[in-house]
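Annex B. Sample input.
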Amino acid sequence: MELQQVDEGNLEGLLAVAVDDAAPEEVMPPVAGPPGWTRERQGAFRDWHRARRPGLSGPLHESTFAITQDGEIVGSARLAVRERPDVLEVGMWLARSKRGRGIGTAALRMLLDEAARSGARTVVADTKAHNTAALTALRRNGAQIITSQDTVEVHAALMPSEMPPPPPTASL
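Annex B, continued. Sample output.
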């Protein structure tokens, strides 16, 4: 598995995975208009990733990655600077057909390594209480999960320097 910076070489492949195997609301901010992968929404997807190409030191302080498994794009991940340069937020999505295989847990581990290389001391993630896959990946990577009694929002805090080793993989 690998994280690749999103660039013109992999952007169309990432979009194809999103269109074929994810809903727009799972992979990008809302775009006005009819539902589905309209021409406008596909353009907005491209623009969103292109705007983040300068990376964490760029004007948006955010970087996006294509998640690949065996050379195939299976989703996307991002890092974004939050309150301070040493606090980064992580986010990701996976193609529906690739979920439930441990890819999210492994991709999060790689994002945390990338965050540590970028100087992050804390990594945060926000998700919904019903997103058990995200919560599982976060817990497996040592996240402290903070829930709210009043909402379905969940906040997770991870410490790159104190992360547990990845779980062992079964050998065949």
